[in-house]
Amino acid sequence: MPTAGQSGEVPAPSKRADAVRNQQKLLAAAAEVFTTSGVDAPIREIAARAGVGMGTIYRHFPTRADLVVAVFRHQVEACAEAGPRLLADADSPLAALRQWTDVFVDFLVTKHGLANTLQPDSSGFTALHTYFLDRLLPVAEQLLDAAADAGEIRPGTQPYELMRGIGNLCIGPENDPRYDPRRLVALLLRGLQEPQPPS
């Protein structure tokens, strides 16, 4: 019996990898458009940003709700994957925690717009919120534990408290250009730091 390679067919995993890459590119473009133009932005704007036809978007995401949910999940994954990478690459666990909170704030600014399109009492909202916590709480915990073990922050900060606090600081900046949640998040992180003895 001939294998896929012997029959001259292109292996399916290669096609799937291309499709996944294209879908990731499309979701990244949609996230950018949602951030700048809101979740009600025209689909043609997303298609232009992604460099694809509108038919491609509708083929992957038949409804706007499908696209919104996919963007939400895509951004959760990007935020979750950033934590371990930053911890491995940063100069210190505290630096990694700071960089990750920047990524998290970027996500939250988009997430609030996405969340507004979902009804909090719907099962879809509940499932996404559970997914969000399941993926990101362990990342926040890993970063907090590493910074505490390095003596850079006080031990005992709960990951949910940190994420909830940052989330609350990110509410509403789009309505007030004078408000920058990053400044407040930086103050919050400074408050976690272990006081250094005078030199």
TrEMBL record:
PROSITE patterns: HTH_TETR_2 (PS50977)
Keyword field: DNA-binding, Transcription, Transcription regulation
Signal peptide extent: none
DNA-binding region: 42-61
Start and end residues of each HTH tetR-type domain: 20-79
Name recorded for this polypeptide: TetR/AcrR family transcriptional regulator
Species for this entry: Streptomyces longisporoflavus
Lineage, opening ranks: Bacteria, Bacillati, Actinomycetota, Actinomycetes, Kitasatosporales
